[in-house]
């Protein structure tokens, strides 16, 4: 079973600052099938990044993903007020078929 | 517009059953895999089940295998989740979502509360 670890658990920043979120897998992620989601309070998750570094449709370019193998990052360049939310990484493959990380809260 | 709308949530007693449905629109439904994901109050996301476009491949998380059954009707553009033997730890918002390697889009979710 592949386990995803996200760090930090909480990131306290101000608008305009840069956020770097980490997602580490306990085993290498095949084909970089690693995605990132944003979940604002009371809302459904929204896909931000897939295949480790590809932005989903209509996602602003201040969101970027990087990494491969076991270590992945989500960077938000210039935090906007609407970016304060919880961010989850997710991988495909292995057992279970899909795994989510525990999440990182980006707070003011 | 691609849209997913869940329904069927509510209050159910421990040991009871509930069937969730997800209505899809705005895309060629039968060409896409579908999933159910849940989120317990104040907790993270948990993938539950996957069904391929033709329903030829179905997978479950260990936590629900043997209790939950996923199915789809491509003539009605819908995917269901039959939930049996429900317990308190099944209390969550249940989301329907499209995808094979990642999930996009998501429905708004439907709340299931298991309580006596």
Features:
heterodimer; A: mainly beta; 49% strand; B: mainly beta; 4-stranded antiparallel sheet; 0% helix
Largest sheet of chain B: 6 strands, mixed
Quaternary structure of the protein:
heterodimer
- Give the distance, in angstroms, between the N- and C-terminal Cα atoms of chain A: 34 Å
Q: With helices defined by DSSP (H or I, 4 residues minimum), what is the helix count of chain B?
A: 0
Cα distance, first to last residue of chain B? 40 Å
Largest interface: A-B, 22 and 20 residues
Q: Which structural class is indicated by helix and strand composition of chain A?
A: mainly beta
Count, helices of chain A: 0
| Structural shape of chain B | globular
Strand order of the largest sheet of chain B: 2-10-9-4-5-6
The residue fraction in helices of chain A comes out at under 10%
Radius of gyration over C-alpha positions of chain B, nearest whole angstrom: 13 Å
Shape of chain A: globular
Structure report:
In chain A, 0% of the residues lie in helices and 49% in strands. With 108 residues, chain A is mostly beta strands. Chain A starts with a strand and ends with a strand. Chain A is built from no helices and 11 strands. Chain A is globular, with a radius of gyration of 13 Å. In chain A, the strands form 2 sheets. In chain A, strands 2, 4, 5, 6, 9, 10 and 11 form a 7-stranded mixed beta sheet that branches. A 4-stranded antiparallel beta sheet of chain A has the order 1-3-8-7, with no helix packed on it. Chain B is an all-beta fold and 116 residues long. The model of chain B has no long low-confidence stretch (mean pLDDT 97). Chain B has a 6-stranded mixed beta sheet, with no helix packed on it.
């Amino acid at each position: 079973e592949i386990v995803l670890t996200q760090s930090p658990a909480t990131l306290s920043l101000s608008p305009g600052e840069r956020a770097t979120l980490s997602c580490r897998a306990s085993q290498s992620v095949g084909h970089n099938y690693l995605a990132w989601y944003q979940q604002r309070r009371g809302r459904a998750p929204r896909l931000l990044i897939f295949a480790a570094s590809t932005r989903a449709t209509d996602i602003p370019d201040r969101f970027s993903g990087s990494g491969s193998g076991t270590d992945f990052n989500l960077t938000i360049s210039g935090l906007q007020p609407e970016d304060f939310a919880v961010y989850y990484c997710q991988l495909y493959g292995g057992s279970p078929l899909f795994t989510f990380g525990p999440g990182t809260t980006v707070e003011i | 517009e691609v849209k997913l709308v869940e329904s069927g949530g509510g209050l159910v007693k421990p040991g009871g059953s509930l069937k969730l449905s997800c209505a899809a629109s705005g895309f060629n439904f039968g060409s896409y895999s579908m999933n159910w994901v849940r989120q317990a109050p104040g907790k993270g996301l948990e993938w539950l089940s996957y069904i391929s476009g033709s329903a030829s491949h179905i997978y479950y998380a260990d936590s629900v295998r043997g209790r939950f059954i996923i199915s789809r009707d491509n003539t009605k553009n819908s995917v269901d989740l039959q939930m049996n033997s429900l317990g308190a730890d099944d209390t969550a918002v249940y989301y329907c979502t499209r995808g094979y390697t990642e999930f996009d889009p998501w429905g708004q979710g439907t709340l299931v509360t298991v309580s006596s």
